[in-house]
């Protein structure tokens, strides 16, 4: 009689090509995210300091700033629709091809921005064309980061999922860093040349960058978890219906988790720049100097995002995420008071800490947390909805609401401190409403917040829902 121990059943991760596929997925997600977010971050920087002057009536500078941020916010309105549309496709047909389409859509719209006529040439049509391009950008972006997040979470080794899932978001930091560096370099140009043609160069050059990202993603393989769904014929026929019947608790808590991370990111990257470099304070900071805060913050984020992802593998997603939310809550009022002083060194430090520490400490664990919250049949759509609805409520409103509050109060920094603290408080509370998802089996069909009888996840939301059923 044989005494050999029985072999464990094979999983998708036993594939001998798994290591190579993991590297390929990491490259496809990270490089694609970096190149895509280069355009996205560049648009945000241009909004605060360029588009308000070129695409709106220069006779009313204050309304130009509000109008530019309103167009910026319009793109966020399109993001949930893109998330719903592409998320459904991603859950029905697979993750890979959605990522190919979204990079083309977003890259094409970004390149077209570099060709748009200004207000001086076509009047109000300049802003209208900018709105169209922004809507296309937002529609593509609605599934881009959700796809990269789901892709890496489903490819990553279970015990290192937090670290590997965070790697694509190094791409976000790298793309933001590159955009800030390019913008800082362009700001050294004579202002007339910069406003005449210099600002167009990075948008037009992004076409080549998008081709590189497209080449990498075309070589990507489908994720092991989706392959398993197909193998067992469990792919959801109607993921959109499923998410509304079983997945809404995860979507709602995901929105809450994103309020401080997403809203704080855009507040520090865009509203803070408009505040310190505009007419809101007595001693405005040079726009090139202020942009260095974004640059340094993004550089810090390249290290802090994977670090906090790794820490979430060791200590859990919730405590690491909660640290970032509480840090932002405590940082909100001191940060805006220091920005109001108009000191260049303090300005750079505040923006860098806000992006590189407060935001990044939530972004790191979030990369694995959101995919772990949803079951395999509607994971892409669930993550996309949580991300993009929150992007409208947090990031999309940050620019227009923040500048409107500052204009309404004559540049009073207290209102922005209160605004940022409110977002942080919502996210802090949300960390108490989710189960710990570290090492969760992503082949499971059930959402983490709908605890099944054989799962040991705990949390207020899951307990309330389980008891109610």
UniProtKB/TrEMBL annotation:
Lineage: Bacteria, Bacillati, Actinomycetota, Actinomycetes, Micrococcales
Family matches, as PANTHER family: SHIKIMATE TRANSPORTER (PTHR43045:SF1)
Domain of life: Bacteria
GO terms of molecular function: transmembrane transporter activity
Protein name: MFS transporter
Pfam families found in the cross-reference section: MFS_1, Sugar_tr
InterPro entries named in the record: MFS (IPR011701), MFS_dom (IPR020846), MFS_sugar_transport-like (IPR005828), MFS_trans_sf (IPR036259), Sugar_transporter_CS (IPR005829)
Membrane-crossing segments per the record: 37-56, 62-85, 97-116, 122-142, 163-185, 197-216, 266-283, 289-308, 320-339, 345-369, 389-407, 413-434
Major facilitator superfamily (MFS) profile domain span: 25-438
Membrane topology label: Multi-pass membrane protein
Residues of the signal peptide: none
Entry's Gene Ontology cellular component terms: plasma membrane
Protein source organism: Microbacterium barkeri
Major place of residence: membrane
Localization in the cell: Cell membrane
Keyword terms of this UniProt record: Cell membrane, Membrane, Transmembrane, Transmembrane helix, Transport
């Amino acid at each position: 009689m044989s005494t050999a121990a029985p072999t464990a059943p094979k999983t998708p991760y036993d594939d001998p090509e798994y290591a190579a596929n993991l590297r390929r997925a990491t490259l496809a997600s990270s490089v694609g995210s970096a190149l895509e977010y280069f355009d996205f971050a560049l648009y945000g920087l241009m909004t605060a300091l360029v588009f308000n002057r070129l695409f709106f009536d220069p006779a009313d500078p204050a309304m130009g700033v509000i109008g530019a941020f309103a167009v910026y916010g319009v793109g966020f309105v399109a993001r949930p629709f893109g998330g719903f549309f592409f998320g459904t496709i991603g859950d029905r047909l697979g993750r890979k091809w959605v990522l190919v389409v979204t990079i083309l859509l977003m890259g094409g719209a970004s390149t077209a921005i570099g060709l748009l006529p200004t207000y001086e040439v076509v009047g109000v049509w300049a802003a209208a064309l900018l709105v169209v391009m922004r809507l296309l950008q937002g529609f593509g972006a609605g599934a881009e980061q959700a796809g990269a997040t789901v892709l890496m979470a489903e490819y990553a080794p279970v015990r290192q999922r937090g670290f590997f899932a965070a790697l694509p978001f190094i791409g976000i930091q790298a793309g933001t860093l590159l955009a800030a560096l390019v913008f800082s370099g362009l700001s050294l140009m004579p202002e007339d040349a910069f406003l005449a043609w210099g600002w167009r160069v990075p948008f037009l050059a992004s076409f080549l960058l998008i081709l590189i990202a497209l080449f990498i993603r075309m070589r990507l393989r489908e994720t092991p978890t989706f392959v398993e769904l197909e193998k067992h014929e469990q792919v959801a026929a109607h993921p959109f219906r499923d998410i509304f019947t079983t997945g809404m608790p995860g979507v709602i808590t995901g929105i809450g988790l994103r309020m401080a991370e997403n809203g704080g990111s855009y507040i520090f990257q865009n509203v803070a720049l408009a505040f310190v470099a505009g007419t809101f304070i007595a001693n405005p900071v040079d726009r090139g100097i202020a942009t260095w805060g974004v640059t340094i913050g993004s550089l810090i984020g390249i290290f802090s995002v994977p670090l906090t992802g790794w820490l979430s593998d060791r200590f859990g997603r919730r405590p690491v995420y909660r640290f970032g939310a509480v840090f932002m809550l405590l940082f909100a009022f001191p940060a805006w008071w220091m920005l109001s002083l108009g000191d260049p060194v303090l300005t750079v430090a505040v923006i860098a800490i806000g992006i590189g520490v407060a935001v990044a400490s939530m972004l790191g664990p979030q990369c694995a947390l959101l995919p772990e919250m949803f079951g395999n049949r509607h994971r892409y759509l669930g993550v996309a909805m949580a991300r993009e609805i929150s992007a409208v409520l947090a990031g999309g409103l940050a620019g227009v609401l923040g500048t409107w509050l500052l204009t309404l109060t004559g540049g009073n920094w207290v209102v922005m401190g209160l605004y940022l603290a409110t977002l942080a408080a919502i996210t802090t509370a949300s960390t108490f409403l989710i189960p710990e998802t570290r090492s969760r089996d992503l082949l499971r069909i059930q959402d983490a917040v709908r605890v099944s009888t054989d799962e040991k996840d705990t949390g207020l939301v899951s307990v309330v829902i389980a008891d109610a059923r």
